[in-house]
Amino acid sequence: MENKYENLFSEIEKKILVLIIQAKIMDDLTDIRNKYLSKKGEFSALMNKIREADDKKAFGEAYNFARRKIETALSEKLAEFQKAALNEKLHAESIDITLPGKNYNVGVMNPFYKVKREIEDIFVGMGYTVENGPEVDTDKYVFELLNIPKDHPARDMQDTLYIDDNLLLRSHTSSVQAHVMEHANGKPIKIICPGKTFRRDDDDMTHSHQFAQVEGLVIDKNINLGNLKATLELFAKKMFSKDSKIRFRSSYFPFTEPSVEVDVSCFNCKGKGCSVCKGSGWIEILGAGMVHPNVLKMSGYDPEVYSGYAFGIGIERVAMLRYGIDDIRRFYQSDVRFIEEFNKKDED
């Protein structure tokens, strides 16, 4: 049935459709939409005449039909412009899709740093803070404040690399502990000190002139060997196996008294004896002891009031045990094939 109001909109509808066909750029379409279809546009204004219509339903249907035709034409013309713009951009970029794609290799963390971060996480979880210090330090911090005075026989235990008579590459990260104690003003301390250390040594499968340690220090009132053992046993369980046990063996270190070597039960054979533990069921992993009273005095602590313990863990040694690495030099050779092996182990 013919709608008697169609002619009312046909003339302006044809005019707008011609303008759409003649549009050259997208901005022309925007101008057409603003001029005719906006709230106060010429076509939109025709809707006001509905008040004069005797058949408002028919009037509205005719208006909406004409408006849909105009909007459809605008959308189709806009799509043409967008397609042309995309084709022009693709042509300008001239991408050759036959070229081989680019492969990006994902890096793998050296097992040394995996173990270092894990050790740090374990002790931070026990309330320790991480402290760092200079790798080149003075005799005072590397030796003297650690109860190793000049010309003391204990210095022969470490083949130190000197720069001059007073400056040297630190032979242990205990020097960081000396710095922290000096500035603690007699307050309690609970820290770990990870970092590189240097000693003149032969480079072979188990020795290197450069290696790394994580040393720990706790100073407070009523600290004893029981606290040290509980701490290291918890560390061993988290680092190696929940069934791990530790044992102390008497030893000597100038800055601790008493001093102990610490063994952990072999995580490979559960203490039965194997090639990893050389049949003993135990593996030596670190040295430790109670902080020497002289060290406390030199750093401003009263040994009658305060006590403490210290320990030192070799990062490479733990990593070699954890991953079955047979040569310490592999950590420093930057051999990607070696490092990638540990990514496979993590995936397994």
List keywords for this structure.
seven-stranded mixed beta sheet; BirA Bifunctional Protein, domain 2; 348 residues; 41% helix; alpha+beta; 2 domains; 20% strand; 10 strands
Characterise the protein shown here:
There is one protein chain. The protein is of the alpha+beta class and 348 residues long. It has 2 domains: 6-93, no CATH class; 111-347, Bira Bifunctional Protein, Domain 2 (BirA Bifunctional Protein, domain 2, 2-Layer Sandwich), CATH 3.30.930. The chain contains 11 helices and 10 strands. The protein has helices at residues 6-22, 26-37, 42-45, 56-93, 111-125, 139-142, 174-182, 225-239, 293-298, 315-323, 336-347; strands at 129-130, 136-138, 161-162, 167-169, 189-198, 210-221, 246-253, 256-265, 282-291, 306-314. A hairpin with a 2-residue loop joins strand 7 and strand 8 (256-265). Helix 1 runs parallel beside helix 4 and helix 5 (111-125) packs across helix 10 (315-323). The model has no long low-confidence stretch (mean pLDDT 87).
